[in-house]
Input
Amino acid sequence: MANGGPFVVNCAGPRFEVLLMSENTLLAALLGHQPDQAVFLTTPDGDVLCYGDLRRRVGQATGHLQVAGVGTGDRVLCQIAKSPEGLVLYLATVAAGAAFVPLNTGYTGAEIDYFLGDAAPALMILDETTQDASGVAEARGVRVSSPAELTAGGPMVGPVPRAGDDLAGILYTSGTTGRSKGAMLTHDNLLSNAQVLTELWRFTDQDVLLHALPIFHTHGLFVATNVPLCAGGQMRFLPRLDIDALAQHLPDCTAMMGVPTFYTRMLDDPRFTREALAHMRLMISGSAPLLAESHAGFEAKTGHAILERYGMTETNMITSNPYDGDRRAGTVGHPLPGVEIRIAEPDDSGIGVVEVRGPNVTPGYWRNAEKTAESFTQDGWFITGDLGQVDADGYLSIVGRQKDLVISGGFNIYPKEVEVEIDALPGVLESAVYGLPHPDLGEAVAAAVVLNAPGATDEGEILAALADRLARFKIPRTIRILPELPRNTMGKVQKNELRAAGSG
Output
């Protein structure tokens, strides 16, 4: 590391060999490194953990989870601010034989109530930033605990044996219609992806990953933590994206995973020069499309060709541009080893729906057999819903989406969720939510609203009413009051016309 190693604490620690049991291969792969090996992640007070200390904390938290009533096959909902304790609780939930269910910290009580009812968890973990949800959990009869209680000292408990097809996590994702769906992810789903990416992206125990992503979705939780853990490497664990923190900590790092917003902000900041990033080994982007001009501009400024990859909540990572070779702007590369993709019913230009199969793909959606059946072809391929094409050299490009998903700052926003809330407001007849290009976020949420009567409400009243109903990142940045929504002859709202008008 450019500025020397950080201060290390508790590196000796007990070996706690029981955590390396072959019956739980996911934990063995992520935690099976020497107890005094390097450091794991930066704690809020500036100290660091090593693998031996991490294993001890996971073993203690496993015991606390069991005392709190968490058993094999249970679900544990977790809505807490990003912290090292969050990683400990993820690993301890897996060790307890349960499924970890992280929730966006921006979700409101009304949104949390749905997840509680659907997941039927044995426990919900809340911290001081999310305590407002405790009343909703208690009303559902769900026990609530805090990270402090679950990561306190105590006896260490070994992991529950698990098979490869047992659940390790459930990540909630949504569709353009209906409510959120819980994508089930097994031990084999997570382990296969972590091992492949570790090798493909050349991660070793000498790497230090700058981790500034949230840990409630697949990018920050299952890619940006499982990969360095699998390699026995290190993480510089930052609470959030902060451009000053990036500038401060990148000299101590060798790799970074981010969303396009990270790179557009670095492009506009004079501190991120070719000289300042000369020591970096790898810069990876995902969760949203990276504009080709951003890719080219970043390489011209810093000398780094960003490695763009493609994945989904339901599949983990699917494709990646090469580590060695041409990282082509506007593409997401080739299928990962062991993963297959195909373009279903391509048109004359080769564009069709991307379908995928492999060990990384979800077995289906929690308690939703109908949606599971709809999401797979008869011969077993998962239907991504993304429109793509493959060039002559095998590079996949994502050119659009079958449905009008909005991706803003790396977060998926599903129009129906927002439309339902707007349509329920006094004075509103109907609404249509869509995305508009945004230079920083990739896309920004916009809404067209038709009123029951002229002046029945306005943009300010609508935004104020949504503040308590939706996470902040879902709230429209632009609201247009229209006399009617554009429709085709079949009565379907033409969101492409709304986007064109809003972009003009």
About this structure: Residues 1-21 have pLDDT under 50 and may be disordered.
